Amino acid sequence: MSAKKTLFDKVWDSHVVHKIQDGPDVLFIDRHMVHEVTSPVAFLGLKNRNIPVMHPEKTFATADHNTPTINQHLPVKDPLSANQLKMLEENANEYGISYWGLGHEKNGIVHVVGPEYGITQPGATIVCGDSHTSTHGAFGAIAFGIGTSEVEMVLATQCIMQPKPKKMRININGSLSKGVTPKDVALFIISQLTTSGATGYFVEYAGEIFRNMSMEGRMTVCNLSIEMGARGGMIAPDEKTFEYVKGREFTPKGADWDKAMAYWETLYTDEGAEFDKELTFDGSKIEPMITYGTNPGMGMGISNDIPKANEIQGGVSSYQKSLKYMDFNEGESMMGKPIDFVFLGSCTNGRIEDFRAFASIVKGRKKADNVTAWLVPGSHKVEAAIKEEGILDILTEAGFELREPGCSACLAMNDDKVPAGKLAVSTSNRNFEGRQGPGSRTILASPLVAAAAAVTGKVTDPRELMVEFA
Amino acid sequence: MAYDKFNILTSTAVPLPIENVDTDQIIPARFLKATERKGFGDNLFRDWRYNQDNTLKEDFVLNQEKYTGKILVGGKNFGSGSSREHAAWAIYDYGFRCVVSSFFADIFRNNCLNIGVLPVQVSAEFLQKIFDAVETDPKTELEVDLPEQKITLLATGESESFDINSYKKNNMLNGFDDIDYLLNIKKDIETFASNTPL
Questions:
Q1: Residues sharing a CB contact under 8 Å with residue B192, sequence separation 6 or more, in sequence order
Q2: Which of A406, B4, B44, B122 is the most exposed place for a label (fewest CB within 10 A)?
């Protein structure tokens, strides 16, 4: 075996407690996050076994999936949601786990608050019962989603059992054109690989495009790794990463910081280290992207026409079923299609940079009358920044309202449901059938594309509205 | 949680020849609000099975009486999307013990193995043979032999072998559970934890 290691090898190998012959590795988990939906049955399992949480200080709990995004000061109306939230609070208290529930100043979407408070760190292993845990890979961590049985495993033993995934590197160099955001880069990659193209792999993103991205942008890219089937995605930490992490509540301080830095600075792929698969794309060819079907792999440059069934890989009948659900036709343009809803938010695009981008388009314009817009910050910290930076004034002036933090219409577990048949442009991560409410139809896009749709009431190329292009 | 042992399963099958069946279709998010692992089978494929007024969609395969059995056969990339184990619970609770496809999403496959539902990955060609056989004669039976790692169309005797690592195979055969394994190496874990920098 070669002594040259990838970033992924370095972090994975240093966390293997025990290897099982022709079986999974026992992997030590540094940070575990839990939310109300995928944890109750895991805690119930601990009770049935009558065992404690092994390391409560390594688990953090926040409520996000089914919390309301208005009137959070009032009791939660839906009894089932209220019960799940109560269970999370009780379980966290019983087992001595930090709990940031509804109304807590640190409350927000699990993958937004983790990085904000420095729970997310380079070189760590991070899991959560949520597939978008891959977000934290932006810091050079190995982070991935797990099922509830595995949540119980981590609570009980601080380990999970996983076969080591294969390794893929995706290189993108060049520079991005105006109007092209990290979301577009991710949707572009997924459109090239399809929704299962990276299944079985852990992906490293490399090249100028990712080096030049902000930490928020890197989080958006890593967040969407799961949408091409990857276990997770990661980006080697650099000065930008260390700068972001430094001084946050849960990051090491003083001598511990120096010790951590000594480890973090070793976290890069060695020259000549081998990948099972390596792909390279030209960043300058990427356009603002939109999806036209019912999985995130069905995406294209916004100015293109919807591919014909005979042009795509995969089954024709599944493809046609998907277009039929969306009420779109093969070969037609998406541009100018009237839309009903706009959703800005989620663990994919609910960070301050996303609100800045949205505001840059709506500034001086007005929300279209036919559009219902839900603008949902990823956390209270994001909400505070929106106010401090004057973004709220721009949004209000343009006829938009800001809601309170949570997962919201991304998966519509709360009241933020897109009605059947209605078409939404969403900055979230999944356009599955009914994802945003039974019968809802979703177009995934960047905050810029969402903003352009919100002010014009139809699918619009944001570049037409950008000052630089006037 | 210990679960049912899996050895040899002989059963008719329910065909779902659709690609990229995601876990939001298997169990929509609005049905994830339970705090116990009960009753998820009622909402398996909810929006494909029922109209919005809760009447049955008669053309959906689970609503066709001719198709029954403990084996669900799905198209390529089955179980993509969300990590919700509720998807595997719903499949189990409905009565399936085995899911066959030509390709599974990673997290879904792990979730199945962790609760005692056997994911069997076959070639695209063999999957098509199963679909054809079951759609031609819904009474046709499949035999899933875990000890031999072999799946057979009993009517024709055509078979194919499938992969599973020997650790998980042993767990499935005996109804063993990962947590029991991990608790037995607790000392190793504690030693590891005390040396970890984070």
A1: A17, A28
A2: B4
Q: Do A157 and B107 touch (CB under 8 A)?
A: no
**Cβ neighbours of residue B195 closer than 8 Å, sequence gap 6 or more:** none
pLDDT in tens, A77-134: 999 999 999 999 999 999 999 999 999 999 999 999 999 999 999 999 999 999 999 9
Distance, CA of A174 to CA of B94 (rounded, Å) = 51
Task: Enumerate the residues of chain A whose CB falls inside 8 A of the CB of residue B192.
Answer: 17, 28
Give the minimum alpha-carbon distance from A288 to chain B in angstroms, rounded to a whole number.
Answer: 23
Could you tell me the pLDDT band of residue A313, with boundaries at 50, 70 and 90?
Answer: confident
Could you tell me which residues are beta bridge partners of residue B144?
A: B9, B151
> Per the CB < 8 Å rule, is A229 touching B105?
yes
* A1-286 and A289-464, same CATH topology: yes
Q: Which residue among B29, B111, B189 sits closest to A157, beta carbon to beta carbon?
A: B189
| Stated pTM of the model | 0.97
Return the pLDDT at B1.
Answer: 56
For domain A289-464, give the CATH superfamily: Aconitase, domain 3 (3.30.499.10)
Cross-chain residue pair A148–B85, CB shorter than 8 Å: yes
Residues from chain B contacting residue A156 (CB–CB below 8 Å): 179, 182-183
* B82: closest CA of chain A, how far (Å): 5
Contact between chains at B166 and A438 (C-beta distance less than 8 A): no
Best mutation site among A110, A263, A318 for testing chain B: the one with the most B CBs within 10 Å? A318
DSSP A341-389: EEEE-HHHH-SHHHHHHHHHHHTTS---TT-EEEE--SBHHHHHHHHHT
Architecture of domain A1-286: 2-Layer Sandwich (3.30)
- Selected for mutation to probe chain A from B179, B183, B194 (highest A CB count within 10 Å) is B179
Kindly give the pairing relationship between strand A159-162 and strand A25-28: antiparallel
- Indicate whether B2 pLDDT > 90: no
User: What pLDDT, on a 0 to 100 scale, did the predictor assign at position B156?
Assistant: 96
Whether the pLDDT of residue A469 is over 50: the answer is: no
Residue B147, min C-alpha distance to chain A (Å): 16
Find the CB nearest B106 among A38, A229, A260: A229
Burial pattern A355-373, b for ≥16 Cβ within 10 A else e, equals bbbbbbbbbebebbeebeb
Whether the Cβ atoms of residue A43 and residue A155 lie closer than 8 Å to each other: yes
Distance from CA of B92 to the nearest CA of A (A): 14
Name the residue ranges covered by the structural domains of chain A.
Answer: 1-286, 289-464
Q: What is the pLDDT of residues A321-379, one digit of tens each?
A: 999 999 999 999 999 999 999 999 999 999 999 999 999 999 999 999 999 999 999 99
Arithmetic mean of pLDDT, A136-148: 98
> Pick from B17, B28, B192: which is nearest to A434 by CB?
B28
pLDDT at A468: 56
DSSP state of B62: G
Tokens 């109560």, residue?
A86
Whether the Cβ atoms of residue A342 and residue A374 lie closer than 8 Å to each other: yes
Q: What distance separates the 2 farthest-apart alpha carbons in chain A? A: 66
**Rounded-to-integer distance, Cα B105 and Cα B100, Å:** 12
* Contact between chains at B182 and A159 (C-beta distance less than 8 A): yes
- Cβ neighbours of B193 (radius 10 Å): 18
